[in-house]
Amino acid sequence: MSNFNQMNYSPDDSGGGNLDEKELANIKEQTILINPRNPEYEGVGLGIEITTPGYQGKNLDHHGKDDTQETPSAIEQALSVDINQIPEGKMATVRPDMDSLGAMAVIMLRKDGKEVNSDIIKAISLLDREGPMRFKKEGRELLGLSGDENKDKWDEINRILRAANYKITVESMPSSEIDKKILFMEKILTGQYDKKEIDDLYIKDICDLEKARKNSKIETILSGRAVFIESSYKRSMELGYDYADVIIAYNPAYQWPDGTITPKYTIARRDKFVPFDLKKLLEQLKQRNPKWGGQENIIGSPQGEDPQIPPEEMKTLVEKVLI
User: Fold this and answer.
1) Contact, 84 vs 153, CB < 8 A?
2) Which of these three, 159, 186, 208, is where a domain ends?
3) Number of other residues whose CB lies within 10 A of the CB of residue 12
4) Over its length of 323 residues, how does the chain's per-residue pLDDT go in tens digits?
């Protein structure tokens, strides 16, 4: 399952276009995206990182109360789960990212008796669990790809993952079309991808992040444990995880949907295993303005209102709740 020889894929090869249409229909029959604001679980047989309340079924997840940072991610769990023990019904997720959609792709491929690239699966899992910063620094060693003889393999894995991340999370595509993203993951996991598409996506990702870097003020703070980003560029938050696991993102002139322009804060930690008491910070901020809100790993300033907290003061508030 660890074969890494990719094959160039064309929609014109052997009627590939028709095969894609059939596979997309097959994917639609087996998967569904849960609305986290109004979750409904009727017809769900297997959860993939369902973190919304009320779901009681089998769930491939690594964010539960008993999980640790070493718990295999959804896509790795999909590689080892007993296919015969998966309940009937659709696979569902609230997280349409590489890990969850990749997990769906792995299960469908395994059901069809197709081999998958375990190297790519391990890399996606590591990136999802450890984040971009550690993946860049220690990924080669953690994946057992140290040494000059593995450099090309490591470079190719990085290229594929960056292209996939851009396709799955950055490119504009209706959430209802997760079937197309899952099909893309299937092709990556079986080596049947279009190399030119991967190259094009990879270049787009590099250019896009470079624009974000040039249009952002980035300051590593608190002994490297957090990063402050002042920017109005849409991928600045994502860029921040290259520097630290805690992000203070400040947009001095954010335009809300109604046209109102105010400063805006978004404060986040990469996942629940980062030692940062975000809940306590939110409680403190709510004392200033009860309209502050958010979730377990990300909070934001009141919609349409100036939070009236200067950046230096916000840095101090964050410092006090870093564990």
Assistant:
1) no
2) 208
3) 8
4) 444 433 333 334 434 457 789 999 999 999 999 998 899 999 999 999 998 999 999 999 988 878 888 899 999 999 999 999 999 999 999 989 999 999 999 999 999 999 999 999 999 999 999 888 889 889 999 999 999 999 999 999 999 999 999 999 888 655 568 999 999 999 999 999 999 999 999 999 999 999 999 999 999 999 999 999 999 988 888 889 989 999 999 999 999 989 999 999 999 998 888 999 999 999 999 999 999 998 888 999 999 999 999 999 999 999 999 97
Here the tokens at position 168 are 């799955």
Task: Dig out the tokens for 267 from the structure.
Answer: 């404060």
Report the residue count for the chain.
Answer: 323
Greatest extent of the chain over all pairs of C-alpha atoms, in Å: 63
Going by DSSP bridges, is the β-strand pair 261-269/246-255 parallel, antiparallel, or unpaired?
Answer: antiparallel
Instruction: Write down the residue that tokens 């779901």 correspond to.
Output: 55
24 and 145 share one domain: yes
Instruction: In the chain, count H helices and then E strands.
Output: 10, 10
Q: Is residue 262 within 8 Å of 278, Cβ to Cβ?
A: no
**Which residues of 156-288 form beta strands (DSSP E)?**
216-221, 226-231, 246-255, 261-269
Cα–Cα dist 23/17, whole Å? 10
Going from the C-alpha of 210 to that of each of 204, 231, 314, the distances in angstroms are 10, 13, 27
Q: Per-residue b/e over 94-128, b at no fewer than 16 CB within 10 Å?
A: bbbbbbbbbbbbbbbbbeeeeebbbbbbbbbbbbb
**What does the radius of gyration of the chain's CA atoms come to, in whole angstroms?**
21
Q: Please tell me the number of Cα atoms within 13 Å of 18 on its side-chain side.
A: 3
Tell whether 283 is covered by a domain. yes
**Domain that residue 278 falls in:** 215-321
Q: Are 67 and 61 in contact (CB under 8 A)?
A: yes
Q: What whole-number distance in Å separates Cα of residue 31 and Cα of residue 42? A: 12
Residue 291 lies in a domain: yes
